[in-house]
Amino acid sequence: QLVESGGGLVQAGGSLRLSCAASGDIFSRSDMAWFRQAPGKERAFVARMSWITNRAVYADSVKGRFTISRDNAKNTLYLQMNSLKPDDTAVYYCAASITNPSYDYWGQGTQVTVSS
Q1: What sections of 1-116 are H helices per DSSP?
Q2: Gap between the Cα atoms of 53 and 64, Å rounded
Q3: Residue range 25-57, pLDDT digits in tens
Q4: Does residue 22 contact residue 77 with C-beta atoms inside 8 Å?
Q5: Is 87 left (phi over 0), alpha (psi -120 to 50) or beta?
Q6: pLDDT band at 100, cuts 50/70/90?
Q7: Is 116 exposed, middle or buried (CB count within 10 Å of its CB: 0-12, 13-18, 19+)?
Q8: Residue 20 CB: number of other CB atoms within 10 A?
Q9: Of 13, 32, 101, 103, which is least packed with CB atoms within 10 Å of its CB?
Q10: pLDDT at 91 (0 to 100)
Q11: From the centroid of its chain, how far is CA 56?
Q12: How many CA atoms lie within 13 A of 3 on its CB side?
């Protein structure tokens, strides 16, 4: 019910935009978020956006470089990633939270690899 796309290989300093397509019944009533999991590390929070206020919160490691946004007409969540660093290399997951603060739905993930 959540499908990510847009991952790939990019050089350091480059940009990528991830997308997460969701079913309408989930997207319209969920806070949406991005997480990432680097090799050998636990899954980590990246960014989250409220479905009511559109207020966004970010992990310190991505503030000023990443932007989360949502298109309610398309039931799609985005993550614009600029000034990418090798440390941003990870599998990126989209998640939906209906029962705050828990996340009820997860996507399958999309790989982002940043080369130095």
Answers
A1: 24-27
A2: 20
A3: 888 889 999 999 999 999 999 999 998 899 999
A4: yes
A5: alpha
A6: confident
A7: exposed
A8: 26
A9: 101
A10: 98
A11: 12
A12: 5
Q: pLDDT (tens digit, 9 = 90+) per residue, 55-68?
A: 999 999 999 999 99
Tell me which residue has tokens 């130095």: 116
The token pair that represents 13 in the structure block = 């300093």
The whole-angstrom separation of Cα 73 and Cα 38 is: 32
Contact criterion met (CB below 8 Å) for 110 and 4: yes
Query: What is the rounded CA–CA span in Å between residue 82 and residue 7?
Result: 13
DSSP state of 115: E
Please report, for the chain, how many H helices and E strands are present, in that order: 1, 11
- Name the band, by pLDDT with cuts 50, 70 and 90, for residue 108: very high
CB 46, CB 66: distance < 8 Å: yes
